[in-house]
Amino acid sequence: MNETIKEQSWIPLIIVALASFIIALDATFMNVSISQVVADLHTDVSTIQSTMSFYTLITAAFMLLSAKLQDIVGKKKLFLIGTALYGVGTFVASISSSATMLFIGWAAIEGVAGALMMPATVSIISGTYSGEKRTVALAIVGVMGAIAAAIGPLFGGVMTTFLSWRYGFACELIVVILILVLQGRIPDFKPTESRSDLDVTGAIISFIGLVLLVLGILSLTKDFNTSIIVIIVGVLALLGFAWFEIRRKRNGKVPLFDMDLLRDRNLRAGTTVMLLAYLSMSGALFAVSLFLQSVMQLNAFDTGLTTLPLTVGLLIFAILAPNLSGRIGHKKLMALGCIIAIIGCLILSYQFKLNTTSFDLLPGMFVMGAGLGFAMALSVDVALLNIPAEGQNNASGLTSTGQSLGESMGTAIIGVILILGVFGGISHAVDIYAPQYSGNETFQLEVYNHFQEVGNINDVNVDNNVVNIVNTVVQDAMAFVMQVTAILMVVVFILTLRLQDKKT
Fold first, then answer.
1. Residue 30: what are its φ and ψ, rounded to 5°?
2. Whole-number pLDDT of residue 480
3. Which of 61, 304, 381, 439 has the least C-beta neighbours within 10 A?
4. Superfamily of the domain at 1-193
């Protein structure tokens, strides 16, 4: 099959889109299955949460190394190696008899495999399609992670409620087998560098920096002060990595990551847009899911159904984006998407009360998803707009790292914001409904502990003052989360204005 025929086929896109989907799904579908996993494996919640965190950590840490290995091994070959390894990991996870076995299969094997696959998904698309088809393909791959993250709770809820969490991994294994069966439809890409070009020292420094950065972010809600120190050390390590790579290139050696690529404004802004958009989406989904399960007392399946409007909005507008961008331009459409997402956040900020229903959240969730669909769908295409062919693999690694960091940072950062919102809400509510306790930190801490321990929100009806306080806390905390998310989207909007629009 010649390259012309291959480019006319959407099979390569379907293959890499499925890969992007299952990698992102792995990070979210188990959130609603934790209690069942704990019971089945005779372990505890913190162990399973740590396993989930390490999956994201390992994936992010190996991303830059994986991007360079594409040049040495070949992007298709590396993608298939990662896919096969991912299949091994999903199989081990699905038959796990202990928490250790689950960690090996899910966090360790699948984490490394996901890192091998993610940058290749972008660079395979860039090398397979051109023009409008490339825009469409990158748009679909660009939002696959977001769609998977959004429907993860629903998928996990269905698996856990009607079958078993193990079937979630089994479904991923089926997708892996399908990818391997269809792998002949992916074009071949020859390696452009040799093994001697691999920058081992740079790989180690980048690994340490990314591990510390992500580990610090994931620990924000547990030990804030220590986490900040770890994040700072991680950032310093990454700055050291940048200095080392610049020196290496000046000495005539091949760097792990070509820092000259960062001179391109679109790559910098587009990657940051991807990071902040994924941060906003994953963080908002975390906060909303927490509200649905702790306040509205919805089960995993109903929680997924309630967040589905965001997925629908995201998918519809992501599909529309490539065609519309050809008429009004990438830059304007992404900016419009940011404005729509901001409106969605502001609508949602008024909807969280004790008597909130799933229907009340539908408009805001759909509008927010629609705006994110425009912004996310075009960010990868714009980021790679000016990157020459020889730099595509490096650049794809950077955009994939941005996406992975955004997904990792969302839950942790929004979790901190939610806690701050709860404390602020308690202070505000006590001032209104129990002014005699204003400024009484002990009383406010007791209210906070009571708020956390309420198993069913109807239990608070025994005391009207407590009902009023909890209601105000819920409104203030969730409104604060949505306002911060809106501010993040304002930052994304400003970044889109710095983009060089794609010429049509």
1. -85, -5
2. 83
3. 439
4. MFS general substrate transporter like domains (1.20.1250.20)
